[in-house]
Design brief:
With 208 residues, this protein is an all-alpha fold. Helices cover 78% and strands 0% of the residues. The chain has nine helices and no strands. Helix 2 packs antiparallel against helix 3 and helix 2 crosses helix 7. The radius of gyration is 17 Å and the shape is globular.
Length: 208
Amino acid sequence: MHDFFKPLLDWYLQSLETGGYPLIVLLMFVESTFLPLPSELIIPPAAHLAYTKGNMSLTGIVLAGALGSWLGATAMYWVSRWAGRPFILRYGKFFLVTAEKVGKAERWSAAYGNFGIFASRLLPVVRHLIGIPAGIVRMDYWKFSLWTIVGSGLWCGVLCWLGIKAGQDEALMKGELHAITLWGAAILGVLGVIYYFFVHRQMQAGKK
């Protein structure tokens, strides 16, 4: 997956300074559709650039990230609402949306309802898929939009903070392996704990 996204991410990092907010919106749109492009690789570099060069504001980055996430989630919502579950299960596999992933997102949505839309924006796996079950069950679109925007905004704020803190680590910015490993392990550790307690256990319980 890293090799799959590497050309896109290289282009993003090279184009971020000139692309600005519209580029963030575009990449976060992609992140919230069928391609699991990590938002952890989109927002922090933008926050670091804003912090060091001042050509963007952190508020603007959060708003751009939330807007892109909402647009992507909206696309998934309406495609699922109009096409229905059989269509998604039949053709989703061609866009990396397997029946297993759909089932996991449906179990999450059934377990947590409206709050699940908000919480999903903070979690891996279900983040870019939550629009599918919401559309299939015809959840109220305005409630779906509200919780998506609020959750996405909060997540982008967290990622902005991480981008600034990482940018203050001189060893990390110099590319020292030890510092990169520590930051990577810390981020993956926190996400791993959140994923296990709020996603993995719930989805496994749904299979019993």
